[in-house]
UniProtKB/TrEMBL annotation:
Family: Belongs to the expansin family. Expansin A subfamily.
Stretches assigned to the Expansin-like CBD domain: 28-107
Keywords: Cell wall, Cell wall biogenesis/degradation, Secreted
Task of the protein: Causes loosening and extension of plant cell walls by disrupting non-covalent bonding between cellulose microfibrils and matrix glucans. No enzymatic activity has been found.
Gene3D superfamilies named among the record's database cross-references: Expansin, cellulose-binding-like domain
Predominant localisation class: secreted
Superkingdom assignment: Eukaryota
Name assigned to this protein: Expansin
Keyword Secreted part of the UniProt annotation: yes
Pfam families xref list: Expansin_C
InterPro entries: Expan_Lol_pI, Expansin, Expansin_CBD, Expansin_CBD_sf
Topology relative to the membrane: Peripheral membrane protein
């Protein structure tokens, strides 16, 4: 029986608007759902930055939910998102200083 090889070309995702960051949690526990991601469509790393911190790596909880234990209240939040194909997009001051849990903010988008 002859061998049959199937090759699948990966096609970049196209999305309208920017990447969405839905912030949840309590106290110093932040959980961020990252969605509407263009480009490769999946995320391999996320960093978060408050106005009083440097860039802090987040951990994947499950799916595209990322979390960190850090006191970031009363600080504007910036995000650095790296896709599985190694591209990085940085969104500065996505969430304003007075952000609250349960809110969603829009950042920059990967070019597709």
């Amino acid at each position: 029986m002859p061998e049959i090889w199937h090759f699948v070309d990966r096609i970049n995702c196209r999305k309208k608007g920017g990447i969405w960051f839905s912030i949840d949690g309590a106290g110093v526990f932040l959980s961020v759902l990252i969605h509407n991601v263009a480009g490769a469509g999946d995320i391999s790393a996320v960093k978060i930055k408050g106005s009083r911190t440097g860039w802090l790596p987040m951990n994947r909880n499950w799916g595209q939910n990322w979390h960190i234990n850090a006191d970031l209240k009363n600080q504007p939040l910036s995000f650095e998102v790296t896709s599985s194909d190694g591209l990085t997009v940085t969104s500065y001051n996505v969430a304003p200083k007075d952000w609250n849990f349960g809110q969603t903010f829009e950042g920059k988008q990967f070019q597709s």
